[in-house]
Amino acid sequence: MSIAPPVALRMVGTYLRTKLAEQIRSTFFIVAYLLVFQVLIFRAPLVNAGLLALGLGFVILGLTLFLEGIFLGLMPLGERIGLTLPVRGGLAAVLAFSLVLGVGATLAEPAISALRTAGSAITPWDSPLLFALLERYSLELSLVIGAGVGLAVALGMLRFYFFLSLKPFVVILMPLVLVLSWFAARQPGGDQIVGLAWDSGAVTTGVVTVPLILALGMGVSRFRGSGQGSAGGFGVVMLASALPVLAVLIFGLALSPGMPAPSTEEDFIQGVLDGRVRLISSDRLPELLENRGTPQGRHYYALALESSQTQTQTQNSPGESSQYADRPAAIPKSAESRGAVLGLLGTELRGAARAILPLAGVLSLLLFLVLRERTRYLDEVALGIVLSFLGLVLVTSGILLGLSPLGDEIGRRLPEQLDPAPAVQRTLRNFDETSVVRGYTPQGEPQQLVIIHGAGGTEVYPYREENHNRSLGLYELIVPAQIPLGLPPAVWGLGVVLVFAFGLGYGSTLAEPALAAMGKTVETMTVGTLRAKAIIAVVSLGVGFGLVLGVLRIVYAIPLLNLLLPGYGLALILTLFSEDDFVGIAWDAGGVTTGPVTVPLVLSLGLGIGTALGVSDGFGILALASLCPVITVLLYGILARIRRRAILAETEEVPHA
């Protein structure tokens, strides 16, 4: 029976409106939250409002298309391969394909590029090892992370194949990673890579990797009879988050002996010019100083060039360094021209093609040509791949046009709230002692006061002798900022930052497509026992708490391991008391929270606060954003089990008629 075109169009339109409404609801909180802080708390105007609105529209439409494409195209392909490959190729073929899939999906992750972009704030004289990993060895770093994910996927498939519980993997692997982190933090320069390593594990499980490895895991689990229960397909994401941490720590420790020690900016400049420091070439030094150096450093570089008699004097002169200042930014934050938007779309189009098309091609070739498997809904699979491709283009473009600039702006302004004594200074001219009057405090003690009459009424302030310059007749009036609820400025400022961090984590996680994909998968596999909305809400709360801990770590300079060790210790204890089916879901929840929506915003928050406070890096905040959801979901599972048992006990106590 065929459907008339008008009827079909109405059906598609209704379906599309429903899905768009879902995405609007999922992204509304984070968008409204950022706008409220920008306009009401920071009292700053919106820059490029038109471009911002266009970017947000791209994000909403892109998420709608991407999620539908994932469920129609890539996930069915991955699940079908998981069912067929063990039959046709055996366990060896499954493991080999898992390695390739893990590396390929990781290299395609948009969040990996966001992690590399965060390296633009790292200075080589403060953190030489971090600079080397994110700049000089960025490709090698991506390959190391991908190798960790590939090994994790292979281990996950091995676990499904032999019906192994996830608990032994968690109990053995996580202490191993923590011990190596502790060892790295105590090596010369090794403490610099601990935060990067843990954040690397957080960004590996995003919109491309999670749906594919979940689908592959479900396929292998079903092929082997789902011997682990309804949630037997979970647990791979957890491994894909932990093993890259291990890989990056090993890679960083291997590079550490050849790295120079942290130094002053002047010593680093002289070392590069003398050839003692080979972290960067002398040709790149002007660009580095122009973008990341201080005025004192650039002045020192100019003096060093003037005294140099080598040929590099003319090649690296300060005048030539201005070419880097005129270089356009990668993200057109201020350009609202049609050409800038089209250029960005073209760039993201190529990026999405590298992310989606090779993976879809490999999956299709393996399934249809090597395994000679046929699917009944080939048209739906093809449509899903197209929708995934278009959706990813719009999502990444929208983030760069809308969410990322807004997050960067707030990230720069947020540290201002940490000022322990915000105040406004006014200079009163022709001031003398006759302007000072005698008054009393609320406790009845005498006090000298300054009274100012203005259009807004009479203002009274305490007189401070040290602010009075009698020779010039000037008085510097310090007007305290109006702090709501009468709180001390330091308490109010830190409270604003922590509230913002919690809301940012909660709202950005609600909008993550990987979490939405996982939530739907959990609801399907548990036959509605665990609702997708409940899982998403519990995970989002965990991310919010994680960002609060991350901000406190940066503000008070708390070593990352001081939070990771007790946090993962609690998670391991909760794991031992949790049901096997729920362990995989909980540990996977920590991996799907850091995707293309969360990562740019969270890194802007961490690096912005770290830069304002003089911290060499803001890494580690993503690691805590991945840890806390594991704890909240495990607690949710334990409480749900207790409640279920209580209901069953009450049912058994009710006498039957």
How would you characterize the overall build of this protein?
It holds the Pfam family DUF1538. Residues 309-329 are annotated as: Disordered. This is DUF1538 domain-containing protein. The chain crosses the membrane at residues 27-46, 52-77, 89-108, 141-162, 169-185, 197-220, 232-255, 352-371, 383-403, 490-511, 532-552, 558-577, 589-613, 619-639. It is a single chain. The chain is mainly α and 657 residues long. It folds into 3 domains: 43-260 and 334-417 and 490-650, no CATH class; 265-325, no CATH class; 423-480, no CATH class. It is 68% helix and 5% strand. It is built from 23 helices and 6 strands. It has helices at residues 5-41, 49-107, 110-117, 128-136, 138-161, 166-185, 191-203, 209-223, 236-255, 265-274, 285-292, 295-307, 312-315, 322-325, 338-370, 378-413, 489-510, 513-525, 532-555, 560-576, 580-589, 598-612, 621-653; strands at residues 423-429, 436-440, 446-454, 457-462, 468-469, 474-480. Helix 2 packs parallel to helix 15, helix 6 (166-185) runs parallel beside helix 9 and helix 19 packs across helix 23. The longest helix has 59 residues, at 49-107. The protein is globular. Mean pLDDT is 77; it is low at 227-231 and 309-336.
